[in-house]
Amino acid sequence: MRNIGVDADRLWAATMQMGEIGATAKGGCHRLALTDEDRRARDLFGDWMRAAGCVVTVDAIGNIFARREGADPSLPPVMVGSHLDTVPMGGKFDGPAGVMAGVELVRALNDHGVRTKAPVEIVAWTNEEGSRFSPFTMGSSVFAGQLELKDAHAARDITDPLHGPTVGEALGAIGYQGDAPVGGRRPACYLEMHIEQGPHMADEDLQVGIVTGSFQSRYFVATITGEQAHVGPTPMAGRRDALVITSRLVLEIDRIGRAYGADGRSNAPHIELFPNVRGVIPGVVKLSCDVRHSDARQLQRMEEELRACAAIVARESRATIELERYYEFGPIHFHPDMVALLRRTTAELGYRHRDILTVAGHDAVPLNTICPSGMVFVASRAGGISHNEKESSTRDDLAAGANVLLHAVLARAGVVD
Ligand SMILES: [Zn+2]
Predict the structure, then answer these.
(1) Which of 31, 276, 319, 338 is the most exposed place for a label (fewest CB within 10 A)?
(2) How many angstroms is it from 299 CA to the middle of ligand 1?
(3) Are residues 170 and 227 in the same domain?
(4) Considering the domain boundaries, does residue 1 fall inside one?
C-alpha cells in the first residue's frame, strides 16, 4: 500500500465551506434539490474540480461528473460520489461529506503526483433526498436505467404543487440541464462514503463501517376517508374526522415499529389533509408510511400487522382506509468484491471497523445494479441524529472514510509507476 493519505484539515475545511451554502442559524444546512442554494453548491464543486485539473460534464438529469483522466482513457472510470442536496433544515454532512471525500481524494492524488491507469470520476448526483421532487435517489436512478428520464423531468415540486416547477424546469432555471446523455455506460465500480446517520459506530468507538447491504423497506400511501363536516355544529358523537382517525393509525404504526426488536422501524412522516382549512372537519387524509426490517420474514409480518390495524381502525371509526404499497426497497447486497476490498483496505489502514447495514437509501443502491458498488460509513456524532441541524461528524471521522476511499480507488484504478 502506498504511503499517501488525504489532508484531514483540507477535507474538513471543504466540508465546512460547502456547508455555508444554505447554512442555518443552528449550524445545519437547508439546501433543497435544484434551488438556488443547490446551484451555488454545484458551482462550487465544479470550480474546485476544474481547479484540480478535472473535466467537468453535466448530464440531462443534472448529475455532475468531474473526470480525472487516466493513463488509458478507454478504460471505464472508477466512480466516487454522493449528493449535495439536503432535506429541509438538515445537516452539513448527509451527502456533501461523501462528495467532499471525492474532492479531497483527487487533491491528494494531485499532491502526490499519482497517475492512475483508469480514469477517476467524482460525481454529485441530483436530488438524492427526494424532499422537493419524488422519487429519492433520482439522478443515480436515471443514470442506472431504473427511472425514465422523461418521468424524472416531469416530477413536480411537492413542496409547492400548484406553482412549483417540474424537475425539467428547475434544472433549466439553475442552468444544470446538461448536454451529456444520462447513463448508457458502466463504471468500473462505484464507491461512496456517507455518515452513518445512527448512533452505533460512535457508541462502539468505530472509525469505519463497511456497508454490506441494506434493510428492506416497504412504502405505503394510506387514504383515510371519513366525512367532511362543519366544525362547530356537528355533534362529537356523529363525527368521522379523518385526522382523528389517522391519529389512531399513526399510533399503531409507531407501535408496530417498536414491536419487532432492535431492527424494526416504522414511520409516518408525511400527511396531506383535505380540505385543510379552519372551520371544516377533515374528510380525507393521505398518509405516507413505511415499515423496515433487516429480516424478510419479520418485514412481511410487519406489513400484515399494519394492514390488520388499518382494518380495525377503519371498522371502529366507521371510515374506509385503503393501503396502497407503492414502493419496495431492498434487500440490497453490495458487490462482494467491493465489500472485500473495503474491508481489506480499512484493515490495512488500521481503522477500527465492522460490517454494518444501511437503513436508509443511498445513491450506491441504484449504482450497484450496473456496476460493483460499495459504501463506507463514518461515525455520526450528537447521538447519531441526522436529517437535523444538529447532525455532526468530526474531522477525523471524515478523514478515515476518505482515506479508505483513496486507497480503494488506487487499488481499482491501478497506478502507473
Ligand atoms: Zn445522504
Answers:
(1) 276
(2) 23
(3) no
(4) no
Domains of the chain: total: 2
Ligand 1 center from residue 123 Cα (angstroms): 13
Cα–ligand 1 centroid distance for 102 (angstroms): 15
- How many Å lie between the centroid of ligand 1 and the Cα of residue 71? 32
Ligand 1 centroid – CA 83 distance (Å):
7
Could you tell me if 181 and 230 lie in one domain?
no
Same domain, 228 and 142: no
Instruction: Tell me 361's DSSP state.
Output: -
Q: Summarize pLDDT for 191-227 with one digit per residue, the tens.
A: 999 999 999 999 999 999 999 999 999 999 999 999 9
Give the distance (Å) from ligand 1 centre to CA of residue 179.
26
Q: Tell me what the pLDDT averaged over the chain comes to.
A: 96
Tens of pLDDT along 78-137? 999 999 999 999 999 999 999 999 999 999 999 999 999 999 999 999 999 999 999 999
Within-domain flag for 16 = yes
Find the domain containing 188 and state its range.
Answer: 8-214+331-416
Global confidence as pTM = 0.91
pLDDT, tens digit, 9 for 90 and up, residues 282-306: 999 999 999 999 999 999 999 999 9
CA of 39 to the centre of ligand 1 (A): 18
The residues near 320 (Cβ < 8 Å, ≥ 6 apart) are 223, 224, 225, 314
> Which pLDDT does position 1 carry in this prediction?
65
Same-domain pairing of 345 and 197: yes
Q: How confident is the model at residue 330 (pLDDT cuts 50, 70, 90)?
A: confident
- For residue 416, report the distance from its CA to the centre of ligand 1, in Å: 33
Shared-domain flag, residues 131 and 159: yes
**Ion ligand 1 — residues with CB < 5 Å:** 94-95
User: What is the distance between the alpha carbons of residues 69 and 129, in angstroms, rounded to a whole number?
Assistant: 30
66 & 180 share domain: yes
